[in-house]
Amino acid sequence: MKEVKIETTLQLFDDINELPEDIKSLMSIAIDARENAYAPYSNFNVGASLLLDNNEVVIGNNQENASYPSGLCAERTAIYYAGAKYPDAKILKMALTASSKNKVTDKPIPPCGACRQAIAEYELKQDHNIEIYFMGAKGKVAKSSSLSNLLPFIFESSVL
Ligand code: THU
Fold first, then answer.
1. pLDDT (tens digit, 9 = 90+) per residue, 38-60?
2. DSSP assignment, residue 127?
């Protein structure tokens, strides 16, 4: 038996003002998108904005449903829209923010496991890393320079 240790790295910014200007703008777009989330069941709003290599910015937010599993997270709403509208463009950067009507979200809130798997598909397909910045409604912002930092030991198509 051999033990395998997998390490991952994130960067932490004190708040949105510490971000580089281009990322601050991308995060502001995600914040606006978050406000338009349709989340009447969870009261948990998530916004996503993606910068593509054709300079387009695509947004998404969570869309809930009375049949709960039929809803979709903000991240997948955004990446599937990007894939549908700009199938040849690479996703370079992604900004995510989440707020709750029930509590103050002041810590970085990462994408859920299903969204990590979905984002990974695009990172592998485009053979280019996706920088991911995520935050709550305020406070620290975390940066992952690649999806693979958030999902080590991934399930991917080469095994099929
Ligand atoms: N949600 C997202 O939009 N992204 C995530 O990564 C985690 C969760 C949404 C789904 C649901 O509408 C609400 O947040 C509560 O789980």
1. 999 999 999 999 999 999 999 99
2. T
